[in-house]
Amino acid sequence: MNIQTVGVIGAGTMGNGIAQACAAQGIAVVMVDIDQAAVDRGLATIGSSFDRLIKKDKLTQAQKAQALALITGSTSYDDLKSAQLVIEAATENAALKIKILGQLDAMLPAETVIATNTSSISITQLAAATRRPDRFIGMHFFNPVPMMALVEIIRGLATSDETHDAVKALAIALGKSPITVKNAPGFVVNRILVPMINEALFVLSEGLASAEDIDAGMKLGCNHPIGPLALADMIGLDVCLAVMEVYVQQYADSKYRPCPLLKEMVAAGWLGRKTGRGVYRY
Ligand SMILES: NC(=O)c1ccc[n+]([C@@H]2O[C@H](COP(=O)([O-])OP(=O)(O)OC[C@H]3O[C@@H](n4cnc5c(N)ncnc54)[C@H](O)[C@@H]3O)[C@@H](O)[C@H]2O)c1
Hints:
Helix content: 40-55%
Strand order of the largest sheet: 3-2-1-4-5-6-7-8
Bound molecules: nicotinamide-adenine-dinucleotide
Structural class: alpha/beta
Shape: globular
Radius of gyration: 20 Å
Oligomer: single chain
Strand content: 5-15%
């Protein structure tokens, strides 16, 4: 399959990042959101992101102009018909995604592959919202998309080898290093990462060390670029709690129980950087 045009649903954090990563590699993009203001915000974010790369001498003005010319912003799903692959990166809500995927399935050509960037919803369940579960796959980019090397490719129960191979080749063409994983809550990276953050909060709440020392320990002892508690504040403590609750429910295993301190902090509205206070104060 030759992917020359990628459709992206959602012009938010991930959608505009995916659009930027594609356009930077010479792939045409149609980026769709619900209203023009959201599309314009996405396009503006891409423009500023390219500007930062120009400041660092990683991009020229001409390359920026070339990449931006490849991106079409739109509020109409009809404009996605020219794409060989449509990546859904709308708000993380199962009912919303099922609705969007049904709409896409009804209007896209039969051969178009649909991918979703969901971080937690079952790929098999989302594939079932379409009549093309063999041409449906998870393509989980990491934030910020232009910087992060990983793409987790998640196969649903019915995903075909052809679909998998096409999406993997695209990830490589985008300069990413893909890994292929089976469908399960949290896939691979968040399955390991979020319980580690939860455990760091247990260590904190048991008073074994200060937050600063826990983070220093994991940075210096495990070579992590950021400590787990600082990372929790970046991700959002509410997001970490929601993920642990999904694991407890889906795996029915008490090893995933959320740390009581995490629940307390979320109840207090201490959600991390976004609220000015989490494990640390900002
Ligand atoms: N933010 C992250 O760090 C991250 C990392 C990996 C994966 N994800 C996943 O990526 C997806 C998008 O997350 P985000 O952080 O970009 O969210 P976001 O809130 O920044 O952007 C979502 C966008 O989707 C748009 N949207 C909503 N309904 C739509 C519709 N019917 N049609 C078209 N657009 C619609 C919204 O207007 C918004 O602009 C989610 O599934 C999320 O779980 C997020």
